[in-house]
Amino acid sequence: MLARSDTDRPDEPRLTYADVVGRLENPFVGFGPVVYWVARLDDEVVGLAIVYFLEEESSHIGLTEVVVHPRVRRRGIGTAILKAVVPELRARGRRVVETWQITKGSDGERWARELNFRPVHTVLTQVLVIPGTDRALWQDDAPAGYRLQRWEGVVPADLIASFAAARNAMHDAPSGELGYQEPEWTPDRVRAREAELRQNNIELRAVVAVHEDTGEVAGLTELELHPHRPFWGFQRDTAVSAPHRGHGLGRCIKAHLIRWLLADRPDLDRIYTTTGAGNEHMIRVNHQLGCTTVRIMIAVNRDLAELESDLGVR
Questions:
Q1: pLDDT digits over 44-62, tens only?
Q2: What domains can you pick out in the chain, each with its CATH number?
Q3: β-bridge pairing 118-129 and 146-152
Q4: Alpha-carbon torsion 141, 145, 146, 147, what sign?
């Protein structure tokens, strides 16, 4: 993982051993069970696969990441790992193999193309590096007719129904031809996600814009703080309901979240976020807040039955 990061993600500060162990101990929340495979060469681990078995709307997908040490690439190790993974995908009823973690122009993109994976979505990785960024960029007041509210961990009971409804505005975000389907959010599903985050020791912060006339959540943004990377924030969903777009709510709530976070965590170094390449509005908002685009990521997928046939897996 460390060598892959150096080669394919040079924009990131170098990962430490603790970073890698921390990710293994704290898998991504909301993506279902995760299973790992490793490949050894002369007793050295030179490759691995990480597979999340998505649930609910996306239960037909095995979200698969294959990583091979740059020193031993182009020896068939990645393909051998994939062949080992395929039977488990089939056993768990998956029909599609999908991956989101391929850096554009990398060995991984060439490998996926050689295996006839289909590019389905392009995502920009953006980062806000706190030191050196003009903090005046985060001074944004709520527009007339709206108030801001914030919390850690748990949505207030009086807002949870409209919060879940507002989260469903993510269905409008450009997602190319991904097999993954955005969840249908309900209050129960929101509560389940909160519980899973707590179980993984992940701190969740949220800021919402509440429409004064109706008392309903009009826009929301969330950020996670992970225990193994205490100086990084991970921006998650930002969504504004269709009737409330055009008022600058997205920028306003993101700016407020940054100010609040830094008041509590002045040592925070950076905030990472990802944005679909077709989402020009959110890309512009992120740039206005001081984010820079540091990497382009390609998502690919392939029908499992076709992949099995090509790999000769029975």
A1: 999 999 999 999 999 999 9
A2: 2-124+299-311 (3.40.630.30), 128-297 (3.40.630.30)
A3: unpaired
A4: positive
